[in-house]
């Protein structure tokens, strides 16, 4: 590549190569604070105007939700609910009744909630983009300006933005918007989730984006995390076409997971409940590698009964009759607080009473859950394995294994804490299998909140420290002759999947939509080249170099 070509880099979140002109979303409505206090009559009129604008915004979002499917529909409905939120509406109403014009009230009420959400951190902080989007839509409705958001291009284009609100991304047509690049956002942001669903390349946290104007031709490499500005057109077009041919292979992949030289690698799905398991069963996956049991009970004030749990678990087991299902005991806490488990007072929940640690104060929850799992497993034909999250010591692993095996279950633990990775040989001696949760292992290794957009470069599973810990666990699994899975989102990255397999990982589980890309890539490479890619990646000092080294080893 010529030195003259400007290249921007960011955090790659969805693989793929696309070439085309840049488009930017239309400007957000301008807001100038008013200095006038409303008269009593005007206050009544402004409350009506505000309510009508909020209702109009909610109705439009709901219409778009019903015209969409899957995650897009969920995201649009969730944003519509914010526009209908009683707390927000009444905060704005109060401000208007105290004399603020509707636009000022909308801005101030949103700020109150945005500050609160930011303070709460984690998933709540991620919703601030949604709140601000609702505010801007209401401001536009109040002033009769066009809806803020993404223009519909005439030809395939690359969408650049500071950050994309869910309502912007949810309606995108992947034939016309062929890649997403944002200045902000993390690998688990809404932008990333929607890009994954649309199957278009996506890079987040790209600095200097604002210097690239509408109409500039760019080549986006969602695997490497690079954006080439005004590249040589013929080579750029060829790269995008080659990628498309790969994409066609992915579309045709039907499993099973196997390297080109015939080494089996189970390609599995992560699910949350019966509905997502049934949806996953239509994908070419060999089973479930992670059933996150907490997700079905997040809003509960009291623990679900054993009977309720059995019904929930059967929903997943029965969707994968005859196949492997790895079910995880409750991972309550941190980004997934549960009212009946966690204390809202905990100062540092990511390092607090989370996952398996809840059994310390409430052993009966884990006992009851294991009883429910055993009972659901006995009634189904699935090959059920059970594992515990957030294990940090050998004793915790041994205790959990005894409880699970006592109920006739195959017992494993997740490796999400660096301590557990370092102790992998001793932990593997106690359990039947381990599964590496790379989302948390990366967060805890790098001491970087997995939800933080600002820290996206650190929460990258290609970080050498993370690769090194994963490789230690995989090597320990090989030595012990026991399965080592990866069930964090790292397993959704086809290039990283090859590296993981080369390290000795025996199964890969992630969002079901990622399975075909991972499986197709594995089918094109030999185990020897995966091992070479792992060696080369482990020899680098940063994620960009690791990706490049692995890519070269696999294509050589
Ligand atoms: C992980 O940490 O990688 C994992 C799979 O668990 P969760 O994302 O549910 O925390
Ligand atoms: Mg985890």
Brief digest:
The chain has 556 residues and is of the alpha/beta class.
Shape: globular
**Largest pleated sheet:** 8 strands, mixed
Distance between the termini: 19 Å
CATH class of the largest domain: Alpha Beta
**Number of separate structural domains:** 3
What helical percentage do the residues reach? 40-55%
User: Structural class per helix/strand content?
Assistant: alpha/beta
Task: Characterize the structure shown.
Helix content is 46%, strand content 14%. It is of the alpha/beta class and 556 residues long. The protein folds into three domains: 122 residues, Phosphohistidine domain (Glucose Oxidase, domain 1, 3-Layer(bba) Sandwich); 104 residues, Enzyme I, Chain A, domain 2 (Orthogonal Bundle), CATH 1.10.274; 303 residues, Phosphoenolpyruvate-binding domains (TIM Barrel, Alpha-Beta Barrel). The strands form two sheets. Strands 1-8-7-3-4-5-6-2 form an eight-stranded mixed β-sheet. Strands 9-10-11-12-13-14-15-16 form an eight-stranded parallel beta barrel, surrounded by six helices. Strand 11, helix 12 and strand 12 form a beta-alpha-beta unit. Helix 3 packs across helix 4, helix 9 crosses helix 19 and helix 18 packs across helix 20. It is globular. Bound molecules: phosphoenolpyruvate and magnesium ion. Phosphoenolpyruvate binds next to strand 10 and helix 16.
């Amino acid at each position: 590549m010529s030195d003259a070509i400007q290249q921007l880099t960011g955090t790659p979140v969805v693989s793929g190569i696309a070439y085309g002109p840049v488009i930017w979303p239309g400007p957000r409505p301008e807001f100038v604070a008013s200095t006038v206090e409303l008269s009593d009559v005007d206050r009544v009129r402004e409350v009506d105007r505000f309510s009508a604008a909020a209702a109009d915004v909610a109705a439009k979002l709901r219409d778009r939700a019903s015209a969409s499917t899957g995650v897009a529909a969920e995201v649009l409905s969730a944003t519509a609910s914010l526009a209908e939120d009683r707390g927000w509406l009444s905060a704005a109403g109060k401000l208007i009744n105290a004399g603020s014009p509707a636009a000022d009230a909308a801005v101030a009420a949103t700020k109150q909630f945005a500050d609160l959400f930011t303070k709460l951190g984690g998933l709540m902080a991620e919703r601030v983009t949604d709140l601000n989007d609702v505010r801007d839509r209401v401001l536009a409705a109040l002033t009769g300006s066009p809806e803020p958001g993404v223009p519909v291009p005439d030809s395939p284009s690359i969408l650049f933005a500071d950050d994309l609100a869910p309502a912007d991304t949810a309606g995108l047509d992947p034939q016309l918007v062929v890649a997403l690049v944002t200045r902000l956002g993390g690998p688990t942001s809404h932008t990333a989730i929607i890009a994954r669903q649309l199957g278009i390349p996506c890079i987040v946290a790209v600095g200097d984006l604002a210097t690239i104007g509408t109409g500039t031709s760019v080549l986006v490499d969602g695997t490497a995390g690079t954006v080439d500005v005004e590249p040589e057109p013929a080579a750029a077009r060829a790269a995008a076409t080659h990628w498309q041919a790969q994409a066609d292979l992915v579309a045709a992949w039907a499993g099973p997971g196997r390297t080109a030289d015939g080494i089996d690698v189970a390609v599995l799905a992560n699910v949350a409940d019966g509905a997502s398991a049934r949806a996953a069963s239509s994908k070419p996956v060999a089973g479930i590698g992670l059933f996150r049991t907490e997700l079905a009970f997040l809003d509960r004030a009291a623990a679900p009964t054993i009977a309720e749990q059995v019904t929930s678990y059967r929903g997943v087991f029965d969707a994968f009759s005859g196949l492997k299902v790895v079910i995880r005991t409750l991972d309550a806490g941190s980004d997934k607080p549960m009212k009946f488990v966690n204390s809202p007072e905990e100062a540092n929940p990511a390092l607090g009473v989370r996952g398996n640690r809840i059994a310390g104060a409430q052993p009966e929850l884990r006992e009851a859950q294991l009883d429910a799992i055993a009972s659901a497993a006995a009634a189904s034909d699935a090959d059920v394995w059970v594992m515990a999250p957030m294990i940090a010591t050998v004793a915790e692993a041994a205790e959990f294994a005894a409880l699970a095996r006592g109920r006739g279950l195959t017992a494993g633990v997740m490796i999400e804490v660096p301590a557990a990775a370092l102790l992998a040989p001793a932990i593997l001696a106690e359990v039947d299998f381990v599964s590496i949760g790379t989302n948390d292992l990366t967060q805890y290794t790098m001491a970087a909140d997995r939800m933080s957009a600002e820290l996206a470069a650190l929460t990258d599973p290609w970080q050498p420290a993370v690769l090194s810990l994963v490789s230690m666990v995989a090597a320990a699994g090989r030595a012990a002759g026991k399965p080592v899975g990866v069930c964090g989102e790292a397993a959704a990255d086809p290039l990283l999947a090859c590296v993981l397999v080369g390290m000795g990982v025996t199964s890969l589980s992630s969002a079901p939509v990622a399975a075909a890309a991972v499986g197709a890539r594995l089918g094109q490479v030999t185990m020897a080249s995966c091992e070479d890619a792992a060696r080369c990646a482990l020899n680098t000092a940063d994620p960009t170099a690791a990706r490049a080294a692995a890519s070269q080893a696999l294509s050589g």
